[in-house]
Write the structure tokens for this entry.
Amino acid sequence: MARFQYVTQIEIDAGAVRLLARECTAAGISRPLVVTDAGVRAAGVLDRALAALGDLPHAVYDRTPGNPNEGAVRAAAAVYAAQGCDGLVAVGGGSSIDLAKGVAIAATHPGPLAEYATITGGAERITAAAAPLIAVPTTAGTGSEVARGAILIVDDGRKLGFHNWNLLPRVALLDPDLTMGLPPGLTAATGMDAIAHCLETFMSAKVNPPADGIALDGLRRGWAHIERAFRDGATDGEARWNMMSTSLQGALAFQKGLGCVHSLSHSLGGVNPRLHHGTLNAVFLPAVIRFNAEAESMRREHRLERIAHAMGLPADGRHDDGTAVAQAVRAMTERLGLPTRLSAMGVTEDLFERVIDGAMADHCHATNPRLATREDYRRMLADSF
């Protein structure tokens, strides 16, 4: 039996942030903790969100790290408690939104975060007591604003997923104007993250026809607009809107399941938290696409042909081995100025066994269309190196 659920209220439009105070009131939040990072504050985007709160009392935590961790969750939860907050507003990229989800757990549930991780069987321990959250994304990448999950590094160094419908933001306010000042490099990395979500969830063999349709349309939008956003993002509002939609659609779709790209990225990101998740996804995609090409579900449902069509590649009927799609992804990554090899990111081969350990245990491992072995992961790492 297939089960899928779409329940998030989404507002997507230029200027949508102006609805923030109204939506806090509707969600029963009278004193939010605004979770953000130093970059969002420095760019002036936080000021726009705080102005939209008007007279609503609030507190601010602005020390979200690039890869959110349990220590930052504890620090933000302490501010939440000390300031008497009753809800959360996340203003930022996926890191800030995921950190806020961690606070939603930690501020209302006892014990360490690892007890609530999906891979440890703790997802069902997250109850309706979780603090309500409104998400205001400032990047177009993770789509965490419409997802029921968060990725957090726990105290023992593992990068774990936390999934429960009680973590789903009550409202997602998607304002593409907030992304107009995003630097080209971050536009590229977050945009490839969104494209990776669309690609990988469509390749998953799990049954979710609505997710497949959403993912393919998101891929089409992202592939057509990411270079425009990268090169002229300060003025091209249409490109920014479409990239925000790609991010949204990738996350709506990936409840179906992801796969080896994210198993590897989550694991390597836990080993070296300085590595950008979206960039890692872009680097791993070509090797995983070629690996997945041999999956029975990929061939039976002509999934690579459908992917190629969404990307505007020639419809020559020769996409079964994944080579053309993989090459197109690598070429796009290169045009966007991102590294295309792990070695260019400072990754060394001596880390491979640790990365494989984490990938085998990751919650995305089981939903890849082919179940990867340790040797499969070793080849994918070598191909990406």
In short: The beta strands are 9-12, 32-35, 59-61, 87-92, 133-137, 149-153, 159-163, 171-174. The mean pLDDT is 95.
